[in-house]
Specification:
The complex is a heterodimer of chains A (288) and B (322).
Chain A (H helix, E strand, L loop, with lengths): L3 H27 L2 H21 L3 H19 L5 H22 L4 H9 L7 H30 L1 H6 L4 H42 L3 H26 L3 H22 L4 H4 L9 H10 L2
Helix pairs in contact in A: 1-6, 1-8, 1-9, 2-3, 2-4, 2-8, 3-4, 3-8, 5-8, 6-8, 8-9, 8-10, 9-10
Chain B lengths: L1 H12 L8 H26 L3 H21 L3 H18 L5 H30 L3 H8 L10 H17 L1 H9 L1 H6 L4 H42 L3 H25 L12 H24 L9 H20 L1
The chains are: A mainly alpha (288), B mainly alpha (322).
Chain lengths: 288, 322
């Protein structure tokens, strides 16, 4: 399980899990799961375009994910956010189907881009993964306070001169960067699950942002490590284990929150912004 | 001289064999049915802010489709069963509040995609063709057997019937849940009923026209229609009409595109339909948006701004409908 070719898999997945744990916290806090699904899936069209014109997959993914992020932010200025995201993902996938129809030898690659090829990560891929991953973490650190503020209390953040449009665009670009880093090594499915499940689980254990981020990273790490080990032992796809573990940890978190007598929905971030969001937001911020 | 010109034009637009080709005829009928149902269900999906669920169900169904493929029954039944179960779980873990709904949908989607990875892996190792992956993931309007048409029609009628049966309580509880509850509408039950209709509609469209078009025709025409009019009844008709027009024009363009390049490889229908739907939305958004939002600040974004605006128009619309 720790033979030389597996080392790359462990390292790549560790990087991805750390970044996903951090970025995931804000994804769940802001209610951006749809964007976290749309950008990796849509960027897949970029990979198809890159293979068509013969440039690096990473470039194709990066360009498409970035354009997707800008598109969602711009469309979201005038439409509901979920509608904007849905329109963006179908346009990207529609382009993807066009590019796919122009190449012939793509079917196995579809599967690997969608479901990941962790066990086949080459050592060449590790450098870019680590570099882009570090960039993602750096961006989140730089944006930390304003992003937290505008995620929890968008209205008063706006009043204090933190424009929500710019924060939204910045955060979507961080997701796009995460996508570019993660899709070549773990696939679109894994990165989505890692962005949502660990962070959502962490939020049912604590409402303090820093604790939640640490916990989210820890859960993401345990999830991928366990998934790789189980996949190695059982020879079943890793995506299945990530999905199953993600759902189980979330169920466990909700169970814990319910047992502690707290409103489980509150722990999962459901009430933020809708009812009592203001007082709750202040508590969250006070913990920061 | 008029007739020959018209005939030549018709000949150029409708390449020879367009109407006599049996797959094209099936595609035109099935595409129209799926577009109409998606348009009607889509208006409520957009109004209720459930686009993510609407899109997620088309991916979630893949798990059911690949499982059905594995045990050798029609993927359609797999899609329907899986989507109904997923809709139930989403409702159970809290799809009512906006952000909780987002996470609930995400968790269910992640789990279902994990299952899809497993089933697709078994599909590809047991049948040794990668075709299964592509088939299940993307679906194709041109490869649908004509024998499936009756089942598809029955499902459409079910989804449409459920939506229309819930019509009034659905409008009221979509626009103002509090007002609806105060008037004695069982808001949660209506929500569950709508989710069942959504699950049926998405299963049907995902299997017939593929996951991409399923979302495109669910959200695009409905979002366009809701920009054009604030009357729900008119929006339903407009969404269905926009959906059908985009689908038919898309099929026609895909058919014609066979002759566009020297290599004679037709461009995919999904690309054309998505492009038409999106351009339609942009044009309407630009025209209506410029006219309507001139005094309004468009800077306030995202969740708060958008929901606020919908709630206000919602209240006016609800009083009109009631």
């Amino acid at each position: 399980m720790f033979s030389s070719f597996m080392v790359n898999a462990w390292e790549a997945s560790t990087i991805v899990a750390i970044v996903a744990g951090v970025v995931g916290f804000f994804t769940v806090l802001r209610g951006s799961s749809f964007a976290a699904h749309a950008l990796p899936n849509g960027a897949f069209a970029g990979a198809a375009a890159a293979s068509l014109i013969g440039v690096s997959t990473l470039l194709g993914l990066g360009v498409f994910a970035g354009l997707g992020a800008v598109g969602i932010a711009l469309l979201g200025r005038r439409a509901r956010h979920d509608v904007a995201t849905a329109l963006a993902i179908v346009v990207m996938l529609g382009l993807g189907s066009l590019f796919l129809s122009m190449t012939t030898e793509y079917a196995p690659e579809i599967y690997s881009l969608l479901f990941g090829e962790v066990l086949g990560v080459s050592s060449n891929a590790l450098g870019p993964t680590a570099a882009i991953g570090a960039l993602c973490i750096l961006a989140v650190l730089l944006l930390y306070r304003p992003l937290l503020y505008s995620s929890v209390l968008p209205d008063s953040a706006e009043a204090r001169g933190i424009p929500s449009f710019r924060m939204e665009l910045a955060f979507l670009l961080v997701i796009a960067l995460t996508t570019t880093m993660a899709v070549p090594v773990v696939g679109t499915l894994l990165i989505f699950t890692l962005l949502v499940s660990p962070a959502a689980t962490a939020r049912s254990f604590t409402s303090r942002p820093t604790t939640a981020i640490v916990l989210s990273v820890a859960i993401a790490l345990v999830t991928v490590w366990a998934a790789i080990a189980l996949s190695y032992l059982s020879n079943l796809p890793i995506g299945f284990f990530v999905g199953a573990i993600g759902a189980s940890t979330y169920a466990a978190g909700r169970g814990w929150a319910a047992w502690r007598g707290r409103r489980p929905a509150a722990g999962a971030g459901a009430t933020d912004g809708s009812d009592g969001g203001d007082s709750r937001g202040r508590t969250v911020l006070a913990g920061a | 001289m008029r007739m020959p010109v018209a005939a030549t034009l018709a000949h150029v637009v409708f390449e020879p064999g367009f109407f006599s080709s049996s797959p094209v005829r099936v595609a035109l009928v099935v595409g129209a049915v799926a577009a109409a149902v998606s348009g009607v269900v889509g208006v409520f999906t957009v109004a209720r802010g459930q686009s993510f669920a609407g899109h997620a169900l088309s991916d979630i169904g893949t798990a059911g489709g690949s499982a059905a493929f594995l045990i050798g029954i029609s993927p359609l039944y797999g899609f329907v069963v899986m989507n109904l179960m997923a809709a139930g779980v989403m409702e159970l873990i809290g799809i009512r509040r906006p952000r909780g709904r987002d996470v609930a949908t995400g968790i269910v989607l992640g789990a279902a995609l994990g299952l899809a990875a497993l089933f697709l892996y078994w599909d590809t190792t047991s049948t040794s063709t990668t075709g299964a992956t592509v088939n299940v993931l993307f679906g194709s309007i041109f490869t649908l057997p004509a024998s499936m048409v009756p089942v598809i029609v029955i499902l459409s009628v079910l989804a449409l019937g459920l939506t229309l049966a819930l019509y009034r309580p659905l409008i009221l509880s979509s626009l103002s849940p509090d007002l609806a509850a105060a008037r004695g509408v069982p808001v949660r039950l209506v929500g569950v009923g709508f989710l069942v209709a959504l699950a049926l509609a998405v299963s049907l469209s995902a299997i017939t026209i593929g996951a991409i078009l399923s979302t495109a025709l669910l959200i695009g025409p409905a979002a366009t229609a809701l920009r054009l009019t604030s009357r729900t009844g008119t929006a339903l008709v407009a969404a269905a009409a926009i959906g059908i027009a985009s689908t038919w024009l898309g099929i026609l363009l895909a058919y014609d595109s066979y002759d566009w390049t020297a290599s004679h490889r037709a461009w995919p229908v999904s690309f054309f339909v998505v492009a038409l739907v999106f351009v339609g939305y942009l044009v309407v958004d630009l025209v209506v948006g410029r006219r309507a939002s001139a005094p309004r600040r468009t800077g306030a974004t995202a969740t708060t701004g958008a929901t606020g605006a919908t709630a206000t128009t919602g209240a006016t619309r609800a009083s009109g409908a009631a």
